[in-house]
UniProtKB/TrEMBL annotation:
Basic and acidic residues compositional bias, start-end: 191-200
GO cellular component, one term: cytoplasm
Positions of the UniProt region annotated as Disordered: 159-200
Protein name as catalogued: Vasohibin 2
Length: 217
């Protein structure tokens, strides 16, 4: 999180063109320090003309209404005003917008609320809930989304890194990460004195790759 906020600062200084994932990180940076605004990532996997496409926006919840911030070549697939009464209404609006461009939404992934602490080392949870929407009825999708939204508002959902073993709520294919094998203890030599900070940076980048994007800056 701390490294991503530094990247967001660099975006504002450079003022270069950005893509959807970078817009999400920038949206988190610009809304930090506003505790009345809850932020969470929403990812879409769509199908069109024999190809799959990925897109991500920043979901927003404030004063009982949902909306989004993002970046897209299509106005209907980025910013959404804070007018949606439920999370499912917001997701269905995105799905209807995709249909205008002949895209079929295959999967929707929703993460957890992003903390407002810019110096946090907690990674962003990109896909706490995964829905195979192309194989579900809208009534079932709404039920899953409203249960998840209620759990998020009550702050009872925890980051995947806080669970043992890690588990992701999903419908259909399981996306639970594999357990790491415990390595036997070893003695520390002269070459083992380097800090573990580089490993933290690699972990941060791997969380971004989970949604199929990579920051360019």
């Amino acid at each position: 999180m701390a490294k991503l906020m530094e990247t967001a600062k660099e975006m504002t200084r450079e003022s270069l063109p950005i893509k959807c994932l970078e817009a999400v990180i920038l949206g988190i940076y610009l809304t930090n320090g506003q505790p009345s605004i809850e932020r969470f990532p929403i990812s879409f996997k769509t199908y069109f003309s024999g190809n799959y496409f990925h897109h991500v926006v920043l979901g927003i919840y404030c004063n009982g209404r949902y909306g989004s911030l993002g970046m897209s070549r299509r106005a209907e697939l980025m910013d959404k005003p804070l007018t949606f009464r439920t999370l499912s209404d917001l997701i269905f609006d995105f799905e209807d917008s995709y249909k205008k461009y002949l895209h079929t939404v295959k999967k929707v992934k929703i993460g957890l609320y992003v903390p407002h602490e810019p110096h946090s080392f907690q990674p962003i949870e990109w896909k706490q809930l995964v829905l195979n929407v192309s194989k579900m009825l809208r009534a079932d999708i709404r039920k899953e989304l409203e249960k998840y939204a209620r759990d998020m508002r009550m702050k009872i959902l925890k980051p995947a890194s806080a669970h043992s073993p890690t588990q992701v709520r999903s419908r259909g294919k399981s996306l639970s990460p594999r357990r790491r094998q415990a390595s036997p203890p070893r003695r520390l030599g002269r070459r083992d004195k380097s800090p573990a900070l580089p490993e933290k940076k690699v972990a941060d980048l791997s969380t971004l790759n989970e949604v199929g994007y990579q920051i360019r800056i």
